[in-house]
Here is the input.
Amino acid sequence: EQGQAEGILMDLGVSSFQLDERERGFSYHEEAELDMRMNRDQPIKASDLVNQLTQEELSRIIFTYGEERFARQIARAIVKYREDRLISTTLELSSIIKEAIPARYRRDKHPARRTFQALRIAVNQELEALEASLPQAVGALKPGGRLCIITFHSLEDRIVKKFFAEQARTCVCPPRQPVCNCNYRPSLEVVTRKAILPGEVELTINPRARSAKLRVARKIEVL
Here is the structure.
């Protein structure tokens, strides 16, 4: 059964309203409870992760979701700190991270930026939710309908780019098979071969859009 939507726009950015609410615990600039939950009904907070996970688990999360080169050092510092007391606030964690990163690598951007991103993604299971929603979005489109997705970091963008490429394939035969006989039909046509980036005017109005990437695909009618 075909969907009925002519277009779907998925904006994967974190809500600015939530980011700006100090008590939500997303910011490494302001003191607040180390929370980071988008949905406050869910049980796991960022403080639960930093106080309960092993050093190896923390390192994996920080490296995988934050793409942080000093993930091991940060995880080691967190575990050492919590031997004396639990980590409960944003600035407390931010200070631990800052001390774990060599001074010469703290100059350009805030040293806690990547670790806070990693914890937020882990707490809210953002990537799992994205992967589950993509096929649902395609199913909701009518033939010719467009799926437009705005991502804000490379982890999201890779998932979207890979999904579009997989759904746009025309053959799924083994690579060494000389003749295609799979009769595979793609479900999407990629409209944007390269991601669309924000322009200077938009960045002047909305600096938070600096890392945004837009990708678009069109649903193909499967005969």
